[in-house]
Amino acid sequence: MADLETFRTETHQWLDANAPASIRGVGNTLLDGNWGGRKARYPNPDMKVWLDVMAARGWTAPEWPTQYGGGGLSKDEAKVLQQEMNALRLPAPLIGFGLTMIGPTLLQYGTEEQKHEHLPGIIKGEIRWCQGYSEPGSGSDLASLKTRAILEGDHYVINGQKVWTSFANLADWMFMLVRTDPEAKKQEGITFLLVDMQSPGVETRPIKLISGASPFCETFLTDVHAPARNVIFEVNKGWTVAKSLLNHERNMIASAFGTTAGKGRTMRDWAKEHLGLAGDRVADSAIRDRMAQYEMDSRAFRLTTERARDAAKAGRPPGPESSMFKIYGTELNQRRLELLVSIAGPHALGWEGPGFEDVELTLTRDWLRSRGNTIEGGTSEIQLNIIAKRVLGLPD
Ligand SMILES: Cc1cc2nc3c(=O)[nH]c(=O)nc-3n(C[C@H](O)[C@H](O)[C@H](O)COP(=O)(O)OP(=O)(O)OC[C@H]3O[C@@H](n4cnc5c(N)ncnc54)[C@H](O)[C@@H]3O)c2cc1C
Fold first, then answer.
1. Is the minimum distance from the CB of 378 to ligand 1 under 6 angstroms?
2. pLDDT tens for each residue of 151-185
3. What does the pLDDT look like over 203-224, one tens digit per residue?
4. Band of pLDDT at residue 340, cut at 50, 70 and 90
5. Which atom of ligand 1 is found nearest the CA of 137?
6. Domain assignment of residue 103, yes or no
7. In terms of domains, do 260 and 386 share one?
8. Measuring from atom 32 of ligand 1, which residue has the nearest CA?
9. Which residue from 97, 134, 326 has its CB within 8 A of the most atoms of ligand 1, so it is best to mutate?
10. What pLDDT score was predicted for residue 56?
């Protein structure tokens, strides 16, 4: 324990000395976090400085092994690091599907060569990844996917279409599912493959939403060549890898809830600002009750997910139980954002223009974005099916 306290003191000092002042208290959500990659732009160059100093210590991936560039921290040390970053109001230096999805999957299923090839680029924030799972007609029924990959010599030739590929237009690499055996039972003819987005034949078309934003793409693959050594695990065994990655994805989506209201404000600061205090309590009693309930539920959930993470550290990677976390965590996140919107009232309903602070405009977008939480990574109905079948063992 003394060692952990020494680690805390040293970490605090190091963070305080190395984190540029201008990044303290900046946003840290899916929308305004740093995704890295070759196409990353840094309106605030200090964000890149922050990424580089943290990556040099492996602290963008604190618990990954040092031989691939990770921090090699124990679970307790990583927790202390996060606590000290919170205390100094420091954003994550890097977010994205490399850290949360393909990285953990490579650690579990990749060869040594594949780990050495891909993990350092993720840790340094040099390579941004996207997920090529869904296809037109193959969302919930993912195993029906049709994108075809045919082995020709030492490479696969891929033809097909993916859809809802988040940020494919900004990504450097894609992890994808392809059909390699059309004759086999649908789950048994799928392979998990890594594709460089710069390969000839890859085309991304952003899908414009009513808001004007384009967070998703259609991704077209026409005679795209990918080396056979980019297959993860075994040919036609991609469904096993795909499910494992989905468990990581669901845990990541589930843990995206929080108690902050952007720019380092707590929910209480937010309520104080918009509703005022009566004595030392939030003035509106109905909101106060909802805040207290949210606080209790989110703390209980945080402790439960921490227990599950301990189990994962003890050598049990996340299983179908992650579907329970996905349902609860996404509903919690939607509740948090609805609560923040209720607190801010009309201030949370702006889209642009004067009269709204940046943090309010971000909230409106975060709130709308959270509606997708119960769809992405598999809808809530699909999670309920998984829980019924694979956790509770109920008959079809
Ligand atoms: C914000 C966001 C980001 C995404 N990012 C990506 C990405 O980066 N990469 C990627 O590959 N995909 C991505 N997706 C796609 C996502 O995985 C699919 O939208 C999701 O799996 C649902 O598939 P679908 O849209 O085809 O809906 P459908 O499968 O057509 O489902 C329609 C409705 O039917 C219900 N339903 C379907 N089957 C059943 C069943 N068996 N039992 C009960 N109800 C059922 C569903 O719950 C849903 O309500 C993203 C989606 C969102 C919203």
1. yes
2. 999 999 999 999 999 999 999 999 999 999 999 99
3. 999 998 776 778 899 999 999 9
4. very high
5. 26
6. no
7. yes
8. 140
9. 134
10. 98
Strands (E), 75-197: 129-132, 148-152, 155-166, 173-179, 190-196
User: Could you tell me the two tokens for 51?
Assistant: 């990424």
Ligand 1 mean position, distance from CA 378 (Å): 5
Residue 61 lies in a domain: yes
Summarised one tens digit per residue, pLDDT across range 228-270 is: 999 999 999 999 999 999 999 988 888 776 666 666 678 999 9
What is the distance in A from the centroid of ligand 1 to the CA of 358? 31
Taking residue 84's Cβ as centre, other Cβ atoms within 10 Å add up to 20
The 8-class DSSP code of residue 42 comes to -
- DSSP H/E element including 382: helix 380-386
Burial 248-283 (b: 16+ CB within 10 A, else e): bbbbbbbbbbbebbbbbbebbebbbebbeeeeeebe
CATH of the domain at 13: 1.10.540
Residue 355 lies inside a defined structural domain of this protein: yes
Pick the residue whose CA is nearest to atom 45 on ligand 1.
Answer: 381
- 112 is known as an active-site residue: no
- What local confidence, expressed as pLDDT, does residue 206 receive? 95
In the chain, what is the greatest distance between 2 CA atoms, to the nearest angstrom?
Answer: 75
| Pocket probe mutation, ligand 1, options 30, 193, 375, max atoms within 8 Å of Cβ | 375
Three-class SS of residue 192? strand
71: domain range? 2-95
Are 229 and 259 within one domain? Answer: no
Do 261 and 374 sit in the same domain of this protein? yes
pLDDT score recorded for residue 31: 66
What was the pLDDT predicted at 138?
Answer: 98
Which tens digit of pLDDT belongs to each residue from 34-49? Answer: 999 999 999 999 999 9
How far the first Cα of the chain sits from its last, in Å, is 49
pLDDT tens per residue, range 120-138: 999 999 999 999 999 999 9
Nearest to 158 by CA among 233, 246, 235, 227: 227
Residues 231 and 340 in one domain: no
